[in-house]
Amino acid sequence: MFIHSLWHLLVPGCLPLFTSDGLNLYFYALTAHFGHWLAGSRRGRKTRQWQVAASLIYGQVKKSYRRRKLVRVTHVMHLGTQAALTVALQGLGLTGRLNTAFIERVNLTVRHGVAALARRTWATAKPAPQLLAHLEWWRAYYHFVRPHASLQVALVQPRERGGKLLAQRYRQQTPAMAAGRTNRRWTVREVLCHPLPPVPCFTM
Description:
By secondary structure, this protein is an alpha+beta fold. It contains seven helices and seven strands.
């Protein structure tokens, strides 16, 4: 479901680079969504054969544990080559090393922000629609309301704030401001009152 929803959000012809942990279901989901049908014939009958995109790059980071301690990390390329993955990552301004550090950081941030997703919590997730609504609300708050220290921009001229307060040297930014989606920080009230299209609810 995750790969299918991602595939619908991408513009036609977009082929991302994928890295993940050792869950093999990702491989089957990716190869089923990124490719095209080839027309052919067999015994005089027209047939179609699914061809996985030749430029699809997918690598896995497999971690081995013993008594709950990490003992080995193995990098496996399922699609594409290590050299192609390195070039693609460096083109994005990254080191070129195959890892899952970014998505693990995002997962931890989400768990800290949504109580129902935290481990060993009383705020257990029950109906899927309520959990989805909570997650979407947190995403809006994270991107439009909450400023990120890593996105702050140094001011050309510090702003005096009067009294004993130090001059403001940086302009705070939210992810939405850094992406050019808005030019200011939103308030919680503005987020809650902003009209949105209905969110599809998944039943379990």
